[in-house]
Structure formats: C-alpha cells, structure tokens
Specification:
Layout (H helix, E strand, L loop, with lengths): L1 H8 L4 H23 L2 H7 L8 H37 L4 H5 L2 H23 L11 H26 L2 H23 L9 H6 L3 E5 L4 E6 L1 H11 L1 E5 L6 E2 L4 E7 L7 H5 L2 E4 L8 H16 L6 H19 L7 E3 L5 E4 L5 H15 L4 H17 L2 H16 L8 H18 L10
Parallel strand pairs: 3-8
Antiparallel strand pairs: 1-5, 2-4, 2-6, 3-5, 7-8
InterPro entries: DUF2254_membrane
Organism: Melghirimyces profundicolus
Pfam family, one: DUF2254
Length: 437
C-alpha cells in the first residue's frame, strides 16, 4: 500500500483526476437540487436575481466553459515555460520539484474540475423543464470565480517560484523536512547486539535479488521489522536509499534464526524502486540538486558566483542539521529487543564530500566560492561535536589544497587565511593551521 501511494502521489495527473471526479459528483448534486426544489422554494431560499431560465443558463455555462478552458491553456503554457527555464538554467533534476508541487497540481485540478463541472451541467440541463428557474448556473459562476482567483494566484506562484533564490529555498526546506521524517524512521541504535558474532555464525546468509531495475526511493523500515519479527529473521540491507539497482543484483540478505520458511516477495514490497531519485527519503538527492544549481552558476556561460554561494550556504544549513544527528545507528530491534534489520547508512564525511567536491573542482579559481565553502565549514563546526569538528578540519585542508593560489593577490590571501585561522580556532586545530602561501 505504501509503495502504491508513493508512486501515485508522484503522478502529475493524480490530483486533477481526483478533482474531476469530485466535480462530476458536485454537478450531479446541484442538478438534483434544482430538480427537487420547487420554484417557490428557490425564490424563498435564494435571491431571485440568482435564478435563471434555461436559455440564459446555457449561455452562461457555455461562456464559462470557454473561459475556464482558456485559463487551462494559459496555465499549461506557464508550466512549459517554467520547465524550459528549469532545464536550461538550473538543473533537469529540479523539474520534479515543480511538477510535484502541491500548488501546481491543485490549481490545475481546480481548472479541470471547473471545466468538467460546467460541461456536465450543460449536459444535465437537457432534463430541465423549459420554463423552470434554475439555481445551478449560480453555482457554476461561483466556481468560475474561484478558478479566476486560483489563476491569479498561480501566475503569482510561477513568478515567485521561477526566481532562483526562491527555488534554492524551496529545495532546502524540502530536504530538511525529508531529513527530519527520514531520520525519525531509519535511525536505530549505534551498537550491535552482544551476540552479534554468534548470531551470524550459526545461520547462513541468503541473498535476495531485485525484481526490477531502478533507484531505491523508499524503504519501509517499520514494515520490514514487523515481518522480520514474525519470520524470525535478520535483514541486512546491501543497498541504501538513492542507490541504483539492476534486475538480478543483490538488494539485501537475510539470516534465518529458525527453520521457518519466508516469502522474500513480502520484503521486496517494502522497498520502492523508481526511474529517478526522489526527496522522500533521499537526503543526498536534495544536496545534489543544490550542487547542480551551484555548478551551473559558476560555469563560464553564466558566471554567477553569488548564486553559487547562496547554494553553498543552504547546503551548509542542511549539513549543520545533519551533524546534529548521530547517523551511524543502523541496528534496528523489535519489541523483544531482537535484532531484525541492519541498514546501510552513510557517514557525515560522505555527505560532506558529496556536497563540495564538484564545486571545489570547477570553482577552484573563484575565491568568492571557495571562501564561501570555508565559511560554511566554520558554521558546521560551530554547531558540531568534537568528531564533526575533526572531520570538518580535515576536509578544509582538502578544500584549500584545490585552490589555485598562483592567481591570488596579497589581499586575497589575507582574507582567505583569516577565514582559515578562524576555522582552525573553532575546530580546535589552531596548532595545525598553515597559511596559504
């Protein structure tokens, strides 16, 4: 069920189709209301100015249908402009952020629902008496006004969303939310059980291969632990969220603690594979999106280092929050304190390297970007534990080794060394500080 729901929510057509069924149901209800109520009741309950005859109703509904369809056309055109801009200027990986945006889907759903509502009202009006008064067109006018309000809001939303700073902020917030929900489910305990060696020596390791190819988008940790407790097995994940697996390769292994036979297909159902990476549980994917925008910004064709620094600052925000989690906790137990699942988790140094190694390579000659990285490293170190401080200091030496110092002037070296000195003091490695010559 979780796998089906995740795949369904990623579809762009899901909300428009859902709203369309609701519009069809609403059209039927309003027509039935017109049929059940007498003319005297309508005049008593509604303003008489809101009542129309069937000829005027058809004119109103026809005009509304054309107007709503025009708004749908303009909306689709705006979406195509945004998609083209995202692909050419930012990153193709940011397309799914706009496509999966709830506001975009809801606005399109409201337009489609309004169009379907007016069409079915026109169809149902054939059942109405020629000389009766109708209240249904008033409901259609209100829906059209709502569509107009959504249309104005959508134009504002597109104009805001397409700005690079807002895009970077949206990607950051989405990654932070993903990280918070992700670590609430995947982080177990840091230490393995005392009988770890005995447990894995007395049974054989059984590999389980993937049925399909794709990226691992989601792992239902709670579901796997529950089934593993019933089957009395220990699951060892060979892949992590964000990894690409091919059909026929090993995705996880298990060890039976009893002679009970297990159905491996039940476990594979708890692992969602897709054609592309998503930010549901994949923190690294959110970092990659920000890295790609930064790389586009420092490219010779764009040459926008301040946008790159903005991305670096946002990456630093994510890494700062990440440093506060004890992420080396892969061991999961059931309610009876029996080991059931061992996840494959990445270390903080892995995320740190993946965030900056490409930027360091392509922006080695841009002092603004390199200084921005060192500033972010200091921000991470200020909020980190002693282990994090040591990792940050070691990584800072990797960054400074990649700086092209041959083109630096005296003032450039002065400000760069000043940043490095502050970082050394913050991390507690002032004795190891060596200025850039």
């Amino acid at each position: 069920m979780i796998k089906f729901w995740i795949r369904l929510r990623q579809k762009f057509w899901f909300l428009p189709i859902l709203f369309s069924f609701l519009a069809l149901f609403a059209a039927y209800l309003t027509v039935e209301l017109d049929r059940v109520l007498s003319i005297e009741q309508k005049k008593t309950w509604f303003f008489q100015a809101l009542l129309t005859d069937i000829d005027l109703a058809k004119i109103i509904l026809s005009s509304l249908a054309v107007a709503i369809f025009t708004m749908i056309t303009i909306t689709f055109s705006s979406i195509m402009v945004v998609l083209t801009t995202y692909t050419s200027q930012y990153s193709p990986r940011t397309l799914q952020n706009f496509i999966s945006d709830r506001i975009t889907q809801r606005v399109l759903g409201v337009f489609v629902a309004g169009f379907i509502y007016t069409l079915f009202i026109l169809l149902f009006l054939n059942r109405a008496q020629p000389k009766t008064l109708l209240i249904t067109p008033t409901f259609a006018v209100n829906i059209a006004i709502a569509c107009l309000a959504f249309f104005v809001y959508f134009i504002h939303h597109v104009a805001t969303w397409i700005q690079v700073n807002n895009l970077i902020s949206q990607l950051t917030e989405r990654t932070l939310k993903s990280m918070a929900s992700h670590f609430n489910t995947v982080l177990g305990e840091e230490r393995p059980p005392e009988n770890m060696d005995t447990l894995f020596r007395r049974t054989d390791l059984q590999p389980v291969i993937a049925r399909d190819s794709g990226y691992i988008q989601y792992i239902d940790v709670a579901g796997m632990i529950h089934i593993a407790a019933i089957d009395d097995v220990v699951i060892v994940m060979e892949k992590s969220v964000g990894d690409f697996v091919t059909k026929g390769t090993k995705i996880f292994s298990y060890r039976r603690c009893s002679k009970r036979e297990i159905n491996v297909l039940e476990y594979l159902d708890f692992i969602v594979l897709g054609n592309e990476r998503t930010a549901v549980q994949d923190i690294e994917f959110g970092l990659h999106q920000l890295v790609e925008i930064a790389l586009r910004a420092v490219s010779p064709g764009i040459n926008d280092p301040h946008t790159a620094v903005n991305c670096i600052n946002r990456i630093g925000t994510i890494l700062t929050m990440l440093s506060r989690y004890s992420i080396a906790r892969p061991y999961h137990y059931d309610d009876h304190r029996q080991l059931r699942l061992i996840l494959r988790l990445q270390s903080f140094s892995y995320f740190l390297y993946k965030s900056f190694y490409q930027i360091r390579y392509y922006a080695s000659g841009d002092l603004t970007v390199m200084e921005g990285i060192i500033t972010v490293l200091q921000m991470i170190a200020e909020a980190g534990s002693p282990d994090i401080k040591k990792t940050v200091w070691d990584f800072s030496r990797y960054i400074t080794e990649g700086i092209n110092t041959s083109e630096l002037m005296d003032w450039d070296k002065y400000y760069l060394n000043n940043r490095l000195r502050h970082l050394a003091v913050t991390t507690g490695f002032e004795s190891e500080y060596r200025p850039v010559e």
